[in-house]
């Protein structure tokens, strides 16, 4: 039976359904050494005074205040010095009329004394104490119970224990405290295609590594819960039922990812309906429409997350993490949101709430700009390219450039990168970025790099080849450049005897190209056009004769790796890549690579750091075959 998404719940209804689940764990008692960050489950009253005695708050002399009345520099008081009291010892001397006792900070006030004269206002002379300043009763004395008195309310339930509270509990002699339990969360990833990281992966069989189990587990821990990872359930009903109910028996909340969308193999909703209660199936949000909320077994809470990593993390962050924090007694982090301005106009009109993944970048004046990160819900790299989510109402058709938005950060410690670059991927560039602190680089190709630079999103664009018309109207400062040798990567020994571009056109070769945003793809297209001119034919005709020309890959090493794996006879790539993978190479020429900076951000620390890396990069270029410095950065 195929489950259809009808009557999608609103985000408010989804939050209400989750709030109705009971995730609250039992309270527990922990030792004080393990209490930091925990939340008190009960009130704690002081059972003793802190301090438990009158003590000196300064080094000096314990006296009777009335014996110093009228004392000053011209007419000091003179008292008999009869002993001393140090911290941690019980006084063995009393202060009578006309006498004084030397005392250390923190020491017990001796009987008879009601004030301390600080040492700077006294002088010892022949066994006597000369006092040059009068004191009043209580001066430089901390009475018993000043911090907190016996019987007083020390800390209330719901208090998060920081080092300050732990210090108070220590002063009260408390060695263990009752705290709110951390909700235990069982995580079950479903899907026959999933493989745990570290196990052997078979891409040819459609297998992928399990991303969600570890991503969501980290999110659970960050929200104050205790994650437990269960084995993969696959798409088998009985195994899925067994694992979900095992997790429900052992945990306060069960989270699954995958098998929640409307497809024939999705059976989780059946498990929930047959052995629990399904509260909702589908929420009117993008990404993340296929979400389940319900109970399992004897009322254990259950939430089903989408299978795509970005969707799963977005839904978790928006709907589930707040519920876990609430169950753990933790408040929403104050630094979990940031205000920013849209770097460019963003259109949207789908009639449902959009949870838009976004990245952050600081402009030249230190203001926060926000830009959409949208490579599709299935793109795991979006997890690190996005810093948070902007919630866009269902009735909003577009967000205007410079419009103020609130970003719900994926983590309270998220910060904008020191440098945001977009453009061509390149082995030399990868090494240069290693020398910049906290960069973010999006290898979307030269064309996209220029577009993002023009729109004021990126700090720098890395552009390969002739910029051509794509650079028209773009104001930029060139930081530096290098050249790289490009051509055809072929198997070791070049078994097909490839000698140039003509062999791709005339031979029966399997070819792997780069995507249309790549500068390498542009130069290859230009070379094909030149060959067509030589032959008196059209570029289109030659392209049609090259098997695989229209199938492009995004990463610069992908064609070479396809050749190495035997899936292609030739691939578009770089000499540096061929050498690093032990493959042969047929050169088709050299190509310039330039780093262009937004002129309003040339003084930004991250851009300045990148400029310095370019200036001191001789070793980078020397280490890579077919790569040479173009010229010194300006």
TrEMBL record:
What domain of life is recorded for the organism? Archaea
> What is the designated name of this protein?
Molybdopterin biosynthesis protein
> Which PROSITE patterns does the record associate with it?
MOCF_BIOSYNTHESIS_2 (PS01079)
Tell me the InterPro entries matching this sequence.
MoaB/Mog-like_dom_sf (IPR036425), MoaB/Mog_dom (IPR001453), MoCF_biosynth_CS (IPR008284), MoeA-like (IPR038987), MoeA_C_domain_IV (IPR005111), MoeA_C_domain_IV_sf (IPR036688), MoeA_linker/N (IPR005110), MoeA_linker/N_sf (IPR036135)
Q: Which PANTHER family match?
A: GEPHYRIN, MOLYBDOPTERIN BIOSYNTHESIS PROTEIN
Q: In which pathway does it act?
A: Cofactor biosynthesis; molybdopterin biosynthesis
Please cite one Gene Ontology biological process associated with this protein: Mo-molybdopterin cofactor biosynthetic process
The MoaB/Mog domain sits at 186-326
Q: What Pfam families has UniProt attached to this entry?
A: MoCF_biosynth, MoeA_C, MoeA_N, PBP_like
NCBIfam families per record: Glp_gephyrin, molyb_syn, PRK14498.1
CDD domains, from UniProt? Answer: MoeA
Q: Where are the transmembrane segments?
A: none
Q: Which organism is it from?
A: Haloferax chudinovii
Q: Which UniProt keywords apply?
A: Molybdenum cofactor biosynthesis
